[in-house]
Design brief:
Layout (H helix, E strand, L loop, with lengths): L2 E5 L8 H14 L4 E5 L5 H5 L10 H7 L3 H4 L1 E3 L2 E4 L4 H10 L7 H7 L7 E5 L6 H9 L2 E7 L8 H14 L5 E8 L6 H13 L13 H5 L7 H4 L4 H16 L2
Parallel strand pairs: 1-5, 1-6, 2-4, 2-5, 6-7
Antiparallel strand pairs: 3-4
Helix pairs in contact: 1-12, 3-5, 6-7
The chain binds adenosine-5'-triphosphate and magnesium ion.
Length: 251
């Protein structure tokens, strides 16, 4: 049965989507059965996996219109995708009126849990109802942090939210790991930030760090994860190393 991992940080542009796409694809490359659930109305993970954002059915239709989860899933060479679309932006508001509104994603994913080893949920940059749904559905959360000065900003809000979710809605929620992204290990600042992050999350920070790598930012415009776009580049090596570290922690 799949482990569900939410990729969360309410700060924008820290590498959530890049990590979701490339970790999922790296695990698929290593032979695991993976589903990427794009739960951000920006739908960047959907297009990053090479799936058309204007698909007829997506996660919005599963949650709001009762479409079967399996019918909305698109198979790609890099892993299966439950696509997002712009409609999901309004979904947050429509969900407010629904009973069990924080458990809608959990029910949707429960229906396909047997089909996968890992399900990754790409979250939007906020801690509102969509992210809350992801935290209620997840077994664990993976937090990407940009290795820079303000990396830790907002993390106490995130950890507060996690505590509230654990206490009231999802007691099994764990921290999967904390990932330093766009990291430049040559600067003193980056090294300092890494030390601070390790102090804040003892034992949770991945040894693998993701370097800033131009190929990682190019790949989405080709609709390919990095392992398919340029498997020899540093970005691909880093995400494959992360996938191996992730698997080691999960055996
Ligand atoms: N390691 C990296 N090296 C170079 N560019 C990167 C790297 N990681 C991410 N980027 C680029 O930085 C930008 C933000 O990354 P990404 O979209 O993954 O962040 P995000 O946290 O999902 O953003 P949002 O909060 O808007 O959803 C993107 O243009 C992406 O291509
Ligand atoms: Mg994103």
């Amino acid at each position: 049965m799949a482990k569900i991992v939410a990729i969360v940080n309410q700060k924008g542009g820290v590498g959530k989507t890049t990590t979701c796409v490339n970790l999922a694809a790296a695990l698929k490359y290593l032979g695991r059965r993976v589903l990427l659930c794009d739960f951000d109305p920006q739908a960047n993970a959907t297009s990053g996996m090479g799936v058309d954002k204007s698909v007829s059915n997506g996660v919005y239709d599963v949650l709001i219109n009762g479409v079967e989860t399996r019918k909305a899933i698109v198979t790609t060479p890099y892993g299966d995708v439950l696509p997002s679309s712009k409609a999901l932006a309004g979904g947050g508001v429509e969900m407010i009126e629904m009973a069990d509104r924080q458990f809608l994603l959990r029910s949707a994913l429960d229906a396909v849990r047997e089909d996968y080893d890992y399900i990754f949920v790409d979250c939007p940059p906020s801690l509102e109802l969509l992210t809350l749904n992801a935290l209620c559905a997840a077994d664990s959360l993976l937090v990407p942090l940009q290795g820079e000065y303000y990396a830790l900003e907002g993390l106490s809000d995130l950890m507060n939210t996690v505590r509230i979710v654990r206490r009231n809605m999802n007691p099994r929620l764990q921290i999967e790991g904390v990932l330093l992204t766009m990291f430049d290990g040559r600067t003193n600042l980056a090294i300092q930030v890494a030390q601070e992050v390790k102090r804040f999350f003892p034992g949770k920070v991945y040894a693998t760090v993701i370097p800033r790598n131009i190929r990682l930012s190019e790949a989405p415009s080709h609709g390919k994860p990095i392992t398919a776009y340029d498997r020899g580049c540093r970005g691909a090596e880093a995400y494959l190393a992360l996938a191996n570290e992730f698997l080691k922690k999960n055996t």
